[in-house]
Specification:
213 residues, DNA-binding, 2 domains, homodimer, 7-stranded mixed β-sheet, alpha+beta
Chain lengths: 213, 213
DNA sequence: AGGTGTTAGTTGCAAAGTCCCACGAAGTGT
DNA sequence: ACACTTCGTGGGACTTTGCAACTAACACCT
């Protein structure tokens, strides 16, 4: 019966870059170090792992977001000095960072966005969390690559320009406009919202939403 | 502190078809029904989740195979009537079934290969195991599709014809010979063993092995 | 009003990649 | 010698991709 926790890797685009939301630990072990926000599994409260991850995110970050995906599980006797054997189920969330202002909850001293490059650097985070962030980023980029769209990053409605720019920031490289649009059309991932246009300083753009299956 | 188990989905090619190794349960609950072989996590014995999965496979099936990969975790209060909250970490193994003769170990009444199509059928297996098998098959096929080769299915040395035939059985459809070879060459996944040929009833074939990184 | 700048959206084309089919090569068995 | 099988490669049709040009529609400036 191991000590079982959930860890949440919240990814978002901040300052045009992929960043991860980190919590500074208020208590030992690793007090003062940065780590993924997380909490213990409560078998009296949680109806499933997914529900547990939702609860932890709500308690620690004040967020309630639908785009939560299980990443992996990690376990071993030396992962956490508080327990003889520690098991963590790791979840990944995607958020449109501009709209989301998480607030530090229970047992958290401070919250901050940190570029994923920094967080992945060896020993940058407490416990084995650098490695977990690395996995989260890898799987997210793979999804974007195959246009399995990370809807969490986007508002309900968006223009194709916004979508492309988001993908470019996630992948860290430029994409070709016409190829990008052709693929979207072929795979029917988005559909136009008839009559709605985004107006601004230049030519209005058609507004799209995710295709309803 | 949930009741924590490991479940192993062993996949192999038997009779030219993708099959999964199932155990008939000797005890309640679901006595007599088929399920994935598995066992409880032992924090006094296991140094990691991977090691725990290896131990369970050895104890239940008498196998000791290197190709074991974590698939997902499942948890909830109604998964297993023995515990108020049951957590399972699911692993997937790939074996060249012809060479491997698993033997029923502790608490197992009988072992049998079963085509994955049957096992996936609704309520064919105990607990939520049908769903777990479905995920195992899906992820395995995705790996083969991108030629992230499931080395567990193959001997150390093989011909390209054997490799292609293996992939075809895994995917359940025919592949084109020249495309298949071009992709292998481009991605440098295999390399020829110079001078070694497989002889038989017809033209000898070059023998290959996995490319050494 | 007319010019300029910026983004939206489409089109054309060449290069690269894939799919399908076919052909020669190299063995065995009759 | 001939049929038969699998191995290995090559060619042509077709599709996908990457790049660039072009028009369209707005705001803003002079």
């Amino acid at each position: 019966m191991p000590f079982t926790r959930l860890e949440i890797a919240v990814l978002g685009l901040v300052d045009g870059e992929l960043q991860v939301l980190l919590a500074r630990r208020a208590e030992a072990p690793h007090a003062g170090k940065w780590a993924l926000p997380g909490g213990v599994l409560r078998i009296d409260l949680d109806a499933s792992l997914d529900a547990a991850a939702q609860r932890v995110m709500r308690e620690r970050l004040g967020l309630d977001l639908p785009f939560l995906r299980q990443l992996c599980a990690a376990g071993g006797p030396t992962r956490d000095p508080r327990a003889p054997w520690a098991l963590s189920i790791v979840y990944r969330a995607l958020v449109p960072a501009e709209n989301v202002k998480p607030s530090a909850g229970k047992r958290i001293e401070a919250l901050a966005w940190r570029p994923v490059g920094d967080a992945i650097a060896d020993k940058a985070l407490a416990f084995d969390h650098s490695q977990l962030v690395s996995q989260a980023v890898e799987s997210t980029r793979a999804e974007v690559e195959r246009l399995d769209l990370p809807a969490g990053f986007l508002p309900d409605q968006f223009t194709l320009g916004e979508l492309q720019s988001t993908c470019e920031q996630l992948l860290g490289r430029r994409l070709d406009k016409s190829s990008f649009r052709r693929k979207l059309a072929d795979r029917e991932v988005v559909e136009p919202v008839e009559g709605l246009m985004r107006t601004g300083a230049n030519r209005p753009a058609q507004i799209y939403r995710l295709h309803t299956r």
